[in-house]
Amino acid sequence: MALRTMTFLGFLRASFRRGASEHRPPAQDRALAVRLMRVIFGCYIVVAVGLTAVQMLVAYRAASHRLQEDVAALQRTFSPGIEDAMWRYNAEVLRGILAGMREIPAVVGVEVRDEAGQRVQAVGTLTEASGEVRQVGPGDAFRPVLRSFGAPFSRTFALVHTDGNGRIYPVGSWTVHSDDSIAIEQVKNTLYVILINSAIKSLMLWFIFYAVIRTIVGRPLTQIRDYLARIDADTLGAPPLVIEAGGRHELHALADALNTMRARLRRSFEENAALMRDLREMNATLKDRIAERTRDLEALAHTDLLTGLFNRRKLDEALAEEAERAERNDAPLSLILGDVDNFKSVNDRHGHKVGDEVLVAFAALLRDAVRPTDTLGRWGGEEFMLVCPGTDLAGATALAERLRQRVETTDLPEVGTRTCSFGVATLAPGESTDGLVARADAALYRCKRNGRNRVEASLAPRLDAAVPERGGASRGDAVRMASRSRDDEAA
């Protein structure tokens, strides 16, 4: 805890001195209030615009709905008069009715057609079936006009005359043309009122919020900044920070926390000297422990936990190193793979615990019998590997035979004597380590196939086989080479 306090104090001291050397005029402090206002009013404007848009959409839909209802209501008002004028062929009365309808705000144009679909009379602006907009001029002449901002629509009503005997005679139809731009015009004034109201409220709220934020946030933060700029290791005994602001809020709690931290830092200075001495002593001890632990971990990374022999990773490294040395010195290098015969029956009959004890005893037996220059390790399961540098095939075969005889005559825990099979191979010129391991494994496999408790030596690979560079063979190449070696040697 004291170490963390000392480190944090150093950071504060550097920050305080940098703040004092880069002291800014008080006018710069207002940037925080401005940023707060930008965020607040940015959110406010987004919400206001969204609500205004929703309000305008609702108002527009209501106006559009009323416009549709007004157009539909024209049927009840004007259909009887138009029907009578059409039945009597009274063009003047019909023209008067259409002219009166044109004065209605919801109507931009009206046309009347006879029962054959021929236009009889029309006034205003009409939208043809093709989408072309035309206006009826003097002498019933039509001239094209530009489409308005809104979407035009029309309603057509049938004209039917019923005589005194109740017989019905269709006399034509009449169509009212209107436009959604009328609804837009109706809500335009509402939009102006909403925008002016929002602008006035935004301006007033801006000044009010700025004054409040400046008083409650800006001024206390200036006091805190000035106090932190003055404090250092020599002024930790200065009077505590007091916020000059009405009420009590989070900045007062921040000032209290700073005062508490200042008091703790002052007390920590007295402890730091002794702590540093202890740390130096602990550091020296820790380095020794780390070095010892590192050595243990390195040994653990190369050791099989059950038998205490080298593991497969270490065997791969040792085999690669010995192969390079053998090639460099033109010396032989042999490999022995040993496998406990019928080890599965030990686990099945006596359990895995006894099986582990057998493997440990077998490993100790091999360790005592091999030469100091050889590398012995557990290759996997009940299989062990012995790397024999400077040993040709005959010498490695003889060593494997001695190991086989020793195993055969030694009692193992719980199971008595067991036998072991060994496969031997010698590195050929240009052969990879994977190829060497594959040939030894093939020889070991031949031992199992020929009755176990044997030593089988692998002959050198055929000269006409494509042998890769040492270290360059892939695992798949090694497997194929092992298969070919097993087949050749079996033959």
Radius of gyration: 52 Å
| Adjacency order of strands in the biggest sheet | 4-3-2-1-6-5
H/E topology pattern: HHHEEEEEEHHHEHHEEHEEEHEH
Number of discrete helical segments: 11
Strand content: 15-25%
Short account of what is shown:
Helix content is 58%, strand content 16%. By secondary structure, it is α+β, with helices and mostly antiparallel strands.
Describe the fold and architecture.
The two termini are about 75 Å apart. The strands form three sheets. A six-stranded antiparallel β-sheet has the order 4-3-2-1-6-5. It has a five-stranded mixed β-sheet with strand order 8-9-7-12-13, sandwiched between helices. It has a two-stranded antiparallel ribbon with strand order 10-11. By secondary structure, the protein is an alpha+beta fold. The N terminus and C terminus are likely disordered. Helix 1 packs across helix 4 and helix 10 packs parallel to helix 11. It contains eleven helices and 13 strands.
